[in-house]
């Protein structure tokens, strides 16, 4: 399946730093992906707690390769790859995938940040990366949907400061001025919808104080010619073999193999900005 976005959606991505692909994944595909996140021993065994300033926790799992599991095939399917190629303007590879699980009433917040504020330190010279956030649950203002400062990707990479051992944030002295020029959009999604956003788009999310969980699957791509110069990190270029869009249904509830083909991370990546400076 080719690029899923219209010219208007691609123009919106360029202008606002994000766009929506409503219904990108069908209900039966979302059921497979959700069950894999809930049941796959490799995912469950890699869950990490990322705490906010109040001590609330967002549970995450991170992996850096797109294998033959159903969620690996989701990252490799044509609708995802071709759309990312069209938006980034060149061939892409799988950079990272992440489950973010905000549980009812206890899920934590994320403060204002840019993904490139982290990924710059992985050795990406240019901000030619994007993320596709796939809603496994309905995401609303009440359960902590993503908030994006509209057009903030045009500001370039902003200096970040340490907030906690597990989070860095955009320079808080700048944020009030940024928000005067870049109004917040609350990115609510139905199950199966996708939010596609630029790596310099400044974004955050509130804690989940509702009775409904908020699980999302984020799949990130980097342009091949923007491969990291840091090879000690696990996000360097590995060829991405695209598959047809029916591969998810054909695979069914396929879990990761036992050899960590997906390269699950044992800890979140948070650059030590005190050392970096």
Structure, explained:
The protein has helices spanning 7-16, 27-39, 41-44, 70-76, 78-88, 115-119, 175-181, 247-251, 273-276, and strands at 18-21, 48-51, 57-63, 92-102, 110-113, 129-135, 146-149, 160-164, 167-170, 184-187, 194-198, 203-205, 214-223. The longest helix is centred in the N-terminal third of the chain and has 13 residues, at 27-39. The model has no long low-confidence stretch (mean pLDDT 94). It is 24% helix and 26% strand.
- Give unreliable regions as ranges: none
Question: How many distinct beta strands?
Answer: 13
Q: Averaged pLDDT, please?
A: 94
SSE order in H/E notation? HEHHEEHHEEHEEEEHEEEEHH
The side-by-side strand order for the widest beta sheet comes to 1-11-6-13-4-3-2
Q: Globular, elongated, flat, extended or rod-shaped: what is the shape?
A: globular
Radius of gyration: 17 Å
What's the end-to-end separation, in Å? 44 Å
Number of helical segments with 4 or more residues: 9
Largest sheet: 7 strands, antiparallel
Helix residue percentage? 10-25%
Q: What percent strand? A: 25-35%
Q: Which class do the helix and strand fractions yield?
A: alpha+beta
């Amino acid at each position: 399946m080719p690029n899923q976005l219209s010219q208007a959606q691609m123009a919106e991505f360029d202008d606002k730093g994000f766009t929506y692909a409503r219904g990108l994944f069908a209900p039966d595909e979302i059921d497979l992906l959700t069950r894999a996140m809930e049941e796959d021993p490799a995912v469950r065994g890699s869950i990490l707690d990322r705490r906010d300033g109040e001590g609330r926790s967002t549970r995450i799992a991170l992996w850096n390769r797109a294998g033959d599991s159903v969620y690996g095939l989701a990252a490799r399917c044509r609708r995802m790859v071709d759309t990312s190629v069209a938006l980034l303007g060149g061939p892409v590879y799988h950079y990272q995938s992440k489950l973010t699980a905000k549980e009812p009433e206890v899920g934590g917040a994320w403060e204002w940040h840019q993904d490139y504020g982290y990924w710059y330190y992985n050795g990406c010279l240019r901000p030619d990366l994007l993320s596709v956030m796939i809603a496994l649950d309905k995401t609303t203002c009440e359960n902590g949907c993503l908030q994006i400062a509209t057009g903030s990707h045009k500001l370039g990479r902003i200096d970040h400061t340490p907030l906690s051992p597990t989070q860095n944030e955009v320079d808080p002295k700048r944020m009030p001025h940024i928000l005067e020029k870049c109004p917040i959009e609350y990115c609510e999604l139905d199950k199966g919808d996708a939010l596609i956003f630029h790596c310099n788009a400044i974004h955050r999310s509130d804690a989940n104080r509702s009775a409904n969980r908020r699980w999302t699957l984020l799949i990130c791509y980097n342009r091949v010619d923007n491969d990291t110069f840091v090879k000690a990190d696990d996000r360097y270029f590995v060829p991405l073999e695209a598959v047809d869009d029916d591969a998810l249904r054909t695979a069914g509830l396929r879990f990761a193999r036992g050899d960590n083909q997906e390269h699950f991370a044992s800890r979140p990546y948070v650059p030590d900005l005190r050392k970096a400076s």
